[in-house]
């Protein structure tokens, strides 16, 4: 199986997004099905409880990744 560079970059982007959202008390869930739009969801956590307030997230792939956290 080929380990394409574009796939590795995509995984890095998902990891950065997950880390950023979890730092600000959101549960991050990657969308496993390719739906050509929403790549992940983030749900606000308050007082250790899921609130049901969701964000749909679309991630874009870049060859250079710069985290601004």
Q: How many beta-strand segments?
A: 3
Q: Report the order of strands and helices.
A: HEEE
Major sheet size, sense and barrel closure: 3 strands, antiparallel
Radius of gyration equals 13 Å
Taken from the alpha-carbon principal axes, the silhouette is elongated
Strand content: 25-35%
Low-confidence stretches: none
Computed structural class? alpha+beta
Q: Between the first and last Cα atoms, what is the distance in angstroms?
A: 34 Å
- How do the strands line up in the largest sheet? 1-2-3
Could you report the average pLDDT, rounded to the nearest whole number?
83
- Give the quaternary arrangement of the chains: single chain
Number of helices: 1
Structural features, described:
With 69 residues, this protein is α+β, with helices and mostly antiparallel strands. Helix content is 28%, strand content 30%. It has 1 helix and 3 strands. It has a 3-stranded antiparallel sheet. A hairpin with a 2-residue loop joins strand 2 and strand 3. It is elongated and about 45 Å long. 4% of the residues are buried. The mean pLDDT is 83.
Q: What's the short story on this structure?
A:
The protein is of the alpha+beta class and 69 residues long.
Helices and strands, with pairings:
Layout: H1 5-23, E1 26-30, E2 40-46, E3 49-57
Antiparallel strand pairs: 1-2, 2-3
